[in-house]
Structure formats: C-alpha cells, structure tokens
Design a protein that fits this description.
17% helix; alpha/beta; Oxidized Rhodanese, domain 1; single chain
Length: 204
C-alpha cells in the first residue's frame, strides 16, 4: 500500500473506528487562553518617508509629467518625469538628501520609497506636493524657454546619444536650458527616454 493510502486508512480509522483504530490520545490539560496567547511582537515601524517642508540642502526632484510643469516648478529643481527616474539614477546624489515632489504627494511617496531601496537613504517625499512651495513662499515659476508639454518633432541626427527610431521623432518638451531643449520621446520598444537637442533642430 502506498504511503498516501496508509495515511488515508489511518484517518478513516480515526473517524469511524474499526480494528485499525488508532489509540485514543490522552486528554489534554485545559490551559487558560490568556496563557496560550503569547504577547504579540511589535511590528517593525515603517521608515519615515514624508516631510512637510523640503529638506534643507536637498536636491529638489520634480517627477511630474511635462504637461504639468507649465504651472510652475520650484527654483533649482531637477525635472525628471517619474517613468524616467530609473534610467537616470547616476544623475542623483547619494550623499545628500533628495526631496521628491509631484502634484499632490502620492507619486512622490512611491518614488522616494523606491529610491531608498536603490541605495538613496536620504530620499524624502514632500507631503502635499508642489502646493507646499506656494504655502511657504518658495519661488515657483514656469521653466524658461519652450513651454513644457509642447509636442515637438526632432530629426534623428539631432538626438544627442539617442538611437534613431524613425525619420522624425516626436516627443514632449520637459525644459529648455539656453540653446538646448530636453524632450521625452519613446524608443523603438515604447519606453520613455529623455534626450537633448539644439533648439534650432526642434520643430512643431
């Protein structure tokens, strides 16, 4: 008889009785439930991720989409849409705080948590989002140059370091710094990529 069959036979014998009936177990002492319930171990505290104000001396990381930036960004903030953060970790500091912010604080919370898992222990999420800057009168102004979110067309030979994906590449402007424009495009696999190109090469 197989091991499984033997086990089943013992279970049946225990339930219905018979010549193979298992010996009855001795009665167990009744122990008060209070003694059975061991004190619950304290749950580990979640690490603090949110801050009410930007961390002093931190890099301000704006992870909103290009179309959200026209309403204004904090002075000195690095503009990097959320989907692009994993591709630009080498541009983020590991030796100073990073205050991540978005429109209301939900996306920044997730990004700050993820950054800590990637070795950025001083990543923080600004609770309340960009509105906090207005409340504490931190300078917030539209990025200079082309309006963020503007749809533009770029010739492949103007994409600095990007793999051409067609005769003309379309994307959304993140910001313009002097004569350089930063644009989010989609590569051949559909993933977002941040590229830069001369302003003179951009058309609408």
């Amino acid at each position: 008889m197989s091991r499984v069959g033997s086990l089943l036979k013992k279970v049946v014998a225990r339930v219905v009785g018979g010549p193979d009936r298992a010996a009855a177990a001795p009665p167990r002492a009744v122990v008060p439930s209070a003694r059975l319930a061991a004190p619950a171990a304290p749950e580990p505290e979640e690490p603090e991720l949110e801050c009410e104000l930007p961390i002093p001396g931190s890099l301000l990381l704006d992870i909103r989409e290009p179309g959200e930036l026209a309403s204004g960004v904090a002075e000195g903030a690095m503009l990097l849409p959320m989907d692009l953060v994993p591709h630009h970790l080498d541009e983020l500091p590991r030796d100073r705080p990073i205050t991540v912010y978005c429109a209301a604080g939900a996306r920044s919370f997730g990004v700050a948590h993820w950054l800590r898992e990637q070795g950025f222990p001083q990543a923080w999420s600004l609770s309340g989002g960009v509105g906090v800057f207005h409340a504490v009168k931190v300078p917030v102004r539209p990025p200079p140059g082309m309006v963020p979110g503007t749809r533009v067309k770029l010739p492949p030979d103007a994409l600095a370091g990007a793999v051409p994906v067609g005769p003309n590449v379309r994307g959304e402007v993140i910001e313009q710094r002097g004569d350089t424009v930063f644009v989010v495009i989609r590569d051949a696999q559909g993933f977002p990529v941040r590229v830069e190109a001369p302003v003179s090469a951009v058309s609408r």
